[in-house]
Amino acid sequence: MDSGAAVEVGGLVRSFGDRAVIDDLHLTIRPGEFVALLGRSGCGKSTLLRVLAGLDREIDGGVLVPRRKAVAFQAPRLMPWKRVWRNVLLGLPGRPERDAAIRALEEVGLGHRADAWPKTLSGGEAQRASLARALVREPDLLLLDEPFGALDALTRIKAQRLVAELWQERGCAVLLVTHDVEEALLLADRALVMEGGRIAYETAVDLPRPRDVSDPRFGALRARLLDRLGVEGKEGPEARETEPGTHADTSVAA
Ligand SMILES: Nc1ncnc2c1ncn2[C@@H]1O[C@H](COP(=O)(O)OP(=O)(O)OP(=O)(O)O)[C@@H](O)[C@H]1O
Ligand SMILES: [Mg+2]
């Protein structure tokens, strides 16, 4: 890309009827950068992801994204009449080989389920299959729309670790939409808050990896983000330091 960025969005507007859901949004993501996108339900996060994925072109403004990009949605969207490995290859140009699907499935720990039917997968397995489908595209930009939203706490932690590992191995840029402030701070280099159709707030997550939720700097960032998201009350920085958080109590309700 000319600018050297993985994503370069300038003055983006997306309206539905006369309502601009995205309104003069600017965003730059560096190659290999992991960015988390937070914001209240309905603020336009999925709309932005669809635009970046090239699935929505009814826009004004400038959008530069890599040619190789992949998206994993909150619901895994597997075709029930195709075996898992065929789902992984679905929509790929050319005549991709089964081996490519197997390799991607092995990366997410699902090699043994390659020939299964989607309906026989657990929720976490289906999410991983969806991730394999994104990885097989060897993206320079990976777009993840609440990929762990429907998982139980333990499966979610495993899936987060998996994404962190894959990102470190692959070195692609990632834009992760999440409602979970703690998840954003565990994974991302930078956290954004979307509001009023644009990026209203952002903060670098300048903490060593693996991240430690009990680190006071982690707590301070969490408190600041929760505050920006309008989650008030018990979430003051002092409260957080004496009361280490869990996923449950830092999730922002949809
Ligand atoms: N195709 C569409 N037609 C009309 N309105 C739409 C369309 N797609 C999205 N919207 C509206 O745009 C707004 C933003 O939707 P979007 O799905 O981007 O929100 P979101 O931030 O992803 O929310 P959530 O956190 O609940 O997933 C919502 O008010 C939604 O109703
Ligand atoms: Mg959404």
Identify the notable features of this structure and list them briefly:
Rossmann fold; binds magnesium ion; alpha/beta; six-stranded mixed β-sheet; 23% strand; 254 residues
Q: What does this entry show, briefly?
A:
With 254 residues, this protein is an alpha/beta fold. It has nine helices and nine strands. The strands form two sheets. A six-stranded mixed beta sheet has the order 5-6-7-3-8-9, sandwiched between helices.
Tell me what you see in this structure.
The model is unreliable at 233-254 (pLDDT under 50). The protein has helices spanning 45-52, 84-89, 98-107, 123-135, 153-170, 181-187, 216-228, 237-242, 247-250; strands at residues 7-16, 19-29, 34-38, 60-64, 69-72, 141-145, 173-177, 190-195, 198-204. The protein is globular, with a radius of gyration of 18 Å. A hairpin with a 2-residue loop joins strand 8 (190-195) and strand 9. The protein has a domain at 32-60 and 68-210: Rossmann fold (3-Layer(aba) Sandwich), CATH 3.40.50.300. It has 254 residues and is α/β, with parallel strands linked by helices. The longest helix has 18 residues, at 153-170. 33% of the residues lie in helices and 23% in strands. Helix 3 (98-107) crosses helix 4 (123-135). The chain is built from 9 helices and 9 strands. Bound molecules: adenosine-5'-triphosphate and magnesium ion. Adenosine-5'-triphosphate (ATP) binds next to helix 1. Residues 231-254 are annotated as: Disordered.
